[in-house]
Design a protein that fits this description.
It is a single chain. The protein is of the alpha/beta class. It is 21% helix and 18% strand. The protein is built from 5 helices and 7 strands; from the N terminus they run βββαβαβββααα. Strands 1, 2, 3, 4, 5, 6 and 7 form a 7-stranded mixed β-sheet that branches. Helix 3 runs antiparallel to helix 4. The chain is globular, with a radius of gyration of 17 Å.
Length: 263
């Protein structure tokens, strides 16, 4: 039987100077019915898979600390996206902050450079963010894993955003009975569009960039760290609008995950 879960992290921001944070699971997907039923519970085929990783992460700065993973396999390796497949994403444009699309493209580009993973913008969607979002939605996205959803929202629409929380994100995990089979296949990133718009319009765009990098770090598989000089520090108080040494060490490992030939 296959299993879906979503692991998530959050970053919270007090809009003046300091930051606060909270963290929790975005949701847990349902088990894949009575078993793996291609085209019903999971895609009917693995789709386009390269024979080799589509890209390779650069060597990260020397060191062994400054990062943590959301999940690991029994052998200690991190759960990650398949580097032999493109990671597609869509954006819900409603509530988009000034320059929001460009900021998201910039943040995915930074993530791609650090991991070697290839992220492709599939355009817009009207899908609303939900903790119960399914990673396979054939009626909406066709017979493939649903693209990562990036949505601008507010606390009025979703409980994923509360006072002081500007973003929340996490990947969707799929695994079979095979050892070390867990991998990320989709995910969700939701941002407070009005709050980020205020940052951009008042000259605090680096703060908005830091929020995006932090949340996309979660999407790729990074967890919070206690080092305040990393983007993945849970309060992100400085802010840091570029991945730092520890972040890059973790992202390099997340870019060297195995390729899977099933689903």
């Amino acid at each position: 039987m296959g299993r879906f879960t979503r692991t998530a992290g959050t970053v919270g921001v007090v809009l003046v100077v300091w930051t606060t944070s909270a963290c929790g699971a975005l949701g847990v997907g349902a088990l894949a019915g009575s078993g793996l039923r291609p085209g019903v519970d999971v895609p009917s085929s693995p789709g386009e898979i390269s024979r080799a990783p589509l890209g390779a992460p650069p060597l990260a700065p020397a060191g062994t600390s400054g990062f943590a993973f959301l999940a690991t396999h029994d052998d200690g390796s991190p759960v990650a996206f398949d580097p032999c497949r493109v990671v597609h994403y869509v954006m819900r444009p409603g509530g988009e902050p000034t320059g929001g699309h460009q900021l998201v493209q910039w943040a995915f580009d930074q993530l791609s450079r650090a991991t070697g993973l290839q992220f492709v913008d599939d355009g817009t969607t009207d899908e609303a963010p939900s903790e119960a979002r399914a990673p396979y939605q054939p009626d909406r996205y066709g017979d493939r894993w649903a693209p990562v959803l990036v949505a601008w929202s507010s606390a009025a629409e979703t409980s994923m955003l509360t006072t002081g929380i500007l973003g929340r994100a996490g990947p969707d995990t799929f695994e079979t009975r095979a050892a070390n089979s867990a991998r990320y296949v989709s995910g969700l990133a939701v941002f407070d569009g009005a709050a980020l718009d205020s940052q951009v319009r008042t000259g605090d765009e680096p703060k908005a960039r830091a929020v995006l990098l932090h949340e996309l770090g979660h999407l790729a598989g990074l967890a919070h760290v206690t080092d305040p000089y990393q983007v993945m520090f849970d309060t992100n108080a400085y802010p840091l609008a570029n991945y730092r040494g520890g972040d890059l060490r973790g992202l390099e490992q997340l870019g060297r995950g195995p390729c899977y030939r099933d689903f």
